[in-house]
Specification:
The protein is mainly alpha-helical. The chain has 8 helices and no strands. The protein has 2 domains: 60 residues, lambda repressor-like DNA-binding domains (434 Repressor (Amino-terminal Domain), Orthogonal Bundle), CATH 1.10.260.40; 92 residues. Helix 6 runs parallel beside helix 8.
C-alpha cells in the first residue's frame, strides 16, 4: 500500500477531515490533499509527526516506491529553479546582444536586474538537495557565467562609447 493510501486510511480511521489533520500538523489542507493523491510528500519532520500521531513508524508509512517518487518529485521541482535561472541568464545575454546591435549604453542596470534572480534561482536549485554532487564546480561555473556576461557587457559598453 502506498503512502497516500495509508495516510488517507489512517486519517479516516481516526475520524479526521483533511482540514483537521492539516491543523494538527501545521500544514495546509492542500498539502494533505496532495499527499493523499500522490502529488507530493511531507517533509521528514512532518512524517515524524504523522507517525507519532497515528502510533506507527515512518518505515510502515513509506514504501521503497514512495521514496523513489519523493526523490523524483524533488528533482522535478529543482529543475524548475534551474530553468528559471537559465531563463534569466538568457535574457541578460539577449540584452547584451541587443545593446551591441543597437549600440546603446548603460546596460549594467538591466543586466543586474537579470543576474540577481539568476543567482537566486541557481542557489535555490543547488540547495534543493536533489542534486548534491559537485558543489564547488557548480558555484565556479555560475561565477564564470556571470563573469563572461559582465565582460561582454563591458566590451559592448566600451564599443558603444
Amino acid at each position: 500500500m502506498k503512502f497516500s493510501e495509508k495516510l488517507k486510511m489512517l486519517r479516516k480511521e481516526n475520524n479526521l477531515t483533511q482540514e483537521e489533520l492539516a491543523k494538527k500538523l501545521y500544514v495546509s489542507r492542500t498539502a494533505i490533499s496532495k499527499w493523499e493523491t500522490d502529488m507530493g510528500y511531507p517533509s521528514l519532520e512532518t512524517l515524524k509527526q504523522i507517525a507519532e500521531m497515528f502510533n506507527t513508524s515512518i518505515d510502515s508509512l513509506l514504501t521503497n516506491q514512495d521514496m523513489q517518487n519523493k526523490k523524483m518529485l524533488e528533482k522535478k521541482q529543482a529543475l524548475k529553479y534551474y530553468w528559471f535561472a537559465f531563463a534569466f541568464y538568457l535574457v541578460a545575454l539577449i540584452i547584451v546582444l541587443i545593446s551591441l546591435w543597437f549600440k546603446t549604453k548603460y546596460l549594467f542596470v538591466p543586466i543586474l536586474i537579470c543576474v540577481v534572480p539568476y543567482i537566486i534561482f541557481a542557489l535555490i536549485f543547488k540547495l534543493s538537495n536533489a542534486y548534491e554532487k559537485h558543489t564547488k564546480i557548480f558555484i565556479c561555473v555560475r561565477f564564470l557565467f556571470i563573469a563572461i556576461l559582465i565582460a561582454v557587457a563591458s566590451v559592448v559598453t566600451i564599443i558603444n562609447l
